[in-house]
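Before going further, learn to read the protein records used in this course. The integers have meaning only within a learned vocabulary of local backbone shapes. To see the layout at work, look at the sequence and tokens printed below.
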Amino acid sequence: YREAWDRDKTQISIPSDTPVMLQSKVNALNISNKHYQKAWDEAKAKSYDMRADAIPIKHAKASRDIASEYKYKETHEKQKGHYIGCRSAQEDPKLSWAARAMMLQNDRIYRKAYHDSKAQVHIPVDAMSVQAAKECQTLVSDVDYRQYLHQWTCLPDQNDVIHARKAYDLQSDNVYKSDLEWLRGIGWLTEGSVDVVKAKKAQELLNERLYRTRPDEMKFTSITDTPDVVQAKINALQLSDV
């Protein structure tokens, strides 16, 4: 496939002064790395004189010293352990502030004043708030939940207390069933009760004997000369075997 092209491309001749060839030579010079660095290589081959106190040299040294971590910490390392103007750590404002902050952050020291003063509080045992708290604790306690409340801390003749006692008595199972205690063990006859009377009335209504009356039990006098009676007698004589 490429044999003809490979054979013909070696036989093509283009003049070297054509615009295309000149432009290609210029492009080759522009993209040539060797030609690009030619001036720099010639300058490096020549000797040059740069003094140590030149501005670029000083600037480079200062930048290196600033960027160096050792130079950055050199002043701090030299000042370690040297305090000027403070004879002790308590006189140093920074150390005093740090110690104060540490004391405030310490939980034991933070609660020391509370623990020292909590045992010195004096409250009267008969104060209303204390009595109310004790009563509330008794009410919410599981141990005393089902015990009768017999200790009252308010006047017994108050309306709310009387109402509460009555509501408590109504809700109590013992008081609710106390009216049935006197009936326990007493005999009772059902005669005269509503159910018994109702059953008797229903029995009378359903009684066949009371509902219908037999003809033989009815007392009456028949007339013998009525047409139907005379006709019945004639029929009886005609049907008689005698």
Summary: The first helix runs from residue 3 to 8.
